[in-house]
Task: structure prediction
Amino acid sequence: MEKEKIANKESQSPLSFLKNLLIAHWRSLLLLLIGVYLPLQVFEILTAKIWENEAGFPWDVPILLAVHSTANPQLDFLAVTLAIIGLPWTAIPILGAIAIILLRQKRWRSLAYLLTASLGSVIINRTAKELMHRVRPQLWQSITPESSFSFPSAHAMTSITLVAILLFFTWASSWRWLVLILGSLYIIAIAWCRIYLGVHFPSDILAGWMVALGWTIGVSLIIKPYRTQKSLDSDRPKDEITLLPEERKCAG
Result:
């Protein structure tokens, strides 16, 4: 009886309600701040600076020249190989295979996240390139010249998007550490090869990372694949094929 009185008293207190609400959702709020707001804020700063001055930042050219100074035939071969591996088209078979698995297992929520995150990343990249019209670096003759616009880097966005999707689908299993370590190395390697080949400014890479990170995490907060996803080989949770209460209310 005494506990009920205390609970009723707390429920009538706005400060208590606010405190309990923030405690209950602190993880989501922290993810929203670090994973969505801060990356998109960095992307906005980069975009505004380049919009005012296409030359970009004072550290762009020095980094390009420093990386280029290490050029040799062995690194040329490695960079070209990584550039092919990091192509957006190369990610399609990987994501397609995962999509088929999710489709066969009737994991509609996870499939919706994969399609929304990956297709949205492509649309954002193409739209940003056409709006910004930033030309590629022309400091030396690249062994793999590119003719499309530079900002933001499609390779950088693809690498972040692919690794983020894989992380969300393995986060509840022991595979997440392998995905996190190898994925981080993959992201860095792809960024290095684009700078080494002289086809992207470092700010192109950073912008691609930030907008892709903000997008993939933002989509996850809406579709909530982590609410149901345990692993790709586990039993399908009920929420994979049914709407959550708040989704049912909006849809109805």
